[in-house]
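Journal club prep — side note

Before the paper discussion, L.F. wants everyone to see what a predicted structure for a comparable chain looks like in token form. Sequence:
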Amino acid sequence: MRINRVVTRTGDGGQTALIGGDRVSKGSLRVDSYGEVDELNSCLGLAVAWLQDPSAAELLHSIQHRLFTLGADLAAPEGVPVPRITPGHVEELEQAMEPLMDELPPLEEFILPGGGPAGAALHLARTVARRAERTCVALSSHEPVNEQAIIYLNRLSDFLFVLARVVNKRQSQPETLADFSQKKARKSR
């Protein structure tokens, strides 16, 4: 796909085109849903920029490509032929998560999002994935949405949580345990 012009002026009135040609408000839940997936993809790009771990970067690049499929899925109303998220895509995430979980000790307490720059970026991406999921659920109460898209976002946020912990561990960045009493937080390795 070659894009000749970035400035088209077609959205100046607050409307945008979905895949298939329908025009909708830029404030619609559908536009919010795929916009949040785009934001998530950018967060993953930031995490990759901070990573010192080629295998984790390769996983994230693969997910970034998949997020384009998810964005198209959300930008195309039901019946418009585009690639869609499938149960196989969800299964890919689950299979990628299993060996990562084997690297981690069991989590018995809540941890604060953070660690090193890459881990913190992955925690941020996790929260954006959760927001995108909530927006897709809200959209699904008004319009048909591929249920696998919602499941994928749910599983992706789990995956990103696990990967953030693994990356912090691999880069010797301690986790900070949440302290509900607001005393000095303890570090965990």
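L.F.'s comment for the group: Strands lie at 15-17, 23-25, 175-176, 187-188. Keep this in mind when we get to the figures.
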